[in-house]
Amino acid sequence: NALIYPDSTEPDGNTMVRSINRFSAEDISEYCTAAGITVNAYLQAAFSETMHRLTREENFVYLTVNHGRGAAVEFADAVGMFVKTIAVGASFPEEGHGSEKTADFIKRFSDELTENYASDIYPYTAIVNKFRFRPEVMFVYQGGMEGMNREMAAEFSLGDVKFPINITVYPSDDGEMMIVSEADGKRYNSSDLEMLSQAFASVVRSMLT
User: Fold this and answer.
1) What span, in angstroms and rounded, lies between the C-alpha atoms of 15 and 190?
2) Are 2 and 61 in contact (CB under 8 A)?
3) CB-hemisphere CA count at 13 Å for 179?
4) How does pLDDT run along the chain (209 residues), one tens digit per residue?
5) Which of 92, 178, 192, 201 could form a disulfide with 188, with the two C-beta atoms 3.0–4.6 Å apart?
6) For the stretch 78-115, what's the b/e string if a residue is b when 16 or more beta carbons lie within 10 angstroms of its beta carbon?
């Protein structure tokens, strides 16, 4: 199933910027290095857990992006934009990841995410046309956004939003891990974004403890 986030009863749209709090970007990076996973995989696992808790869906699909250079060797050293949209499938039993330890869940999700990236040669548009589904949530980790700060993030305009809900996470210059939440103003409001970003930040923190 595509991930369909419940519509707001009073949509107004918004762009919200907040930090993970309590743990810095370095704390998260050190945890991931010790666990043998990437920061992106860790945050993607936390995001999928968040979506499961909020929607209570056991199986769903959301979107992310890949650098698009893995499918062809000749792209490795090329200069240009090859970013591709990737559909990420997530499966949870009713009790979340249940008896599975958090570290094992993150590692399993990381392995599954790697498999998704390895299939990026298959266009997202072809998936949409074949299966007639349109996930509404896009999650992106921008690991190398040097010089990014709260003011610049807040200037992200809803006119650039390609999906009803966009979540972007990036490490700021002062070491915080920041969350930028954007939503379609015709369907969601600031309370929706606040709930989503708070829930995601809470899951990120809980997985580190």
Assistant:
1) 8
2) yes
3) 27
4) 445 555 555 555 578 888 998 899 999 999 999 999 999 999 999 999 998 888 888 888 888 887 654 555 554 555 444 467 888 888 886 555 656 788 888 988 888 888 877 766 666 666 667 767 777 889 999 885 444 444 444 444 444 446 788 999 999 888 999 999 888 877 888 888 888 999 999 999 999 88
5) 192
6) eeeeeebbbbbbbebeeeebeeeeeeebbbebbebbee
